[in-house]
Specification:
Strand content: 5-15%
Number of helices: 7
Number of strands: 4
Radius of gyration: 18 Å
Distance between the termini: 16 Å
Length: about 220
């Protein structure tokens, strides 16, 4: 069995972005219901960074470097943090984080509070919206490809698995056994519609067509 291509993704308000080591693909559903797909080669490739210390930051730069290309190729794409209330929440998060770190609280308590505050923009962007459903569709399409079978809307590499354990291990009396899964299930994803899954699958197949033609179905 051939090795699977390692993929990442990002949910948009009206679509899904999927990216591999060298290429990206994005699919969106326009206002009139049309499915539009665009793809291209990455300008920044974290997979080519040899330093373990720099590879993590490079992945962040890599994703954000994709967004202008997505916007140019797909003008109808609605990026996740464009809504005014989310922008305000992000500004509030930055100010609140600075205020927390200026207190005399213990470092562990400070970091727990900062992590909680940092969830606010994502929660506002995702909760009860199409973005949460596309987030679920992104997880289902990528997870199903990786595991070779239909997968649920929670994914083991979602960023919630970093924040969740931090919140649980530093908050006494927590009852969450799988904090990352719980965050995804309750806040960060929602069950997608068949139309939304079609969008995510289109992005996945286009990315695989470029990365590994034999993997695209």
């Amino acid at each position: 069995m051939s090795e699977k291509t390692r993929l990442g993704g990002m949910a948009l308000a009206n679509g899904v972005l999927v990216h591999g080591p060298r290429y990206w693909a994005c699919a969106v559903r326009t206002g009139d219901g049309t499915l539009e797909v665009a793809s291209g080669e990455k300008a920044v490739r974290a997979s080519e960074v040899s330093s373990d210390l720099l590879r993590g930051p490079a992945r962040v730069v890599e994703v954000f470097a994709l967004l202008p290309a997505v916007r140019r190729r797909l003008p109808d794409a609605k990026l996740p943090f464009e809504r005014p209330r989310v922008a305000v929440a992000m500004l509030g998060t930055a100010l609140a984080s600075r205020a927390i770190r200026a207190t005399r609280l213990r470092p562990g308590v400070q970091e727990t509070l900062v992590a909680l505050v940092a969830l606010a923009p994502a929660a506002l962007a995702l909760r009860g919206t199409a973005l949460a459903e596309y987030h679920g569709a992104e997880h289902i399409s990528i997870g199903s490809y990786e595991h070779g079978e239909r997968r649920p809307r929670e994914h083991e590499r979602c960023g919630s698995h970093v924040v969740g354990p931090l919140l649980v291990t530093t908050a006494a009396g927590s009852t969450l056994a799988r904090p990352g899964q719980e965050l995804q299930d309750r806040v960060l994803t929602a069950e997608p519609t068949p139309d939304q899954l079609e969008v995510a699958q289109a992005a996945l197949e286009e990315c695989l067509r470029l990365e590994r033609p034999g993997d695209a179905r």
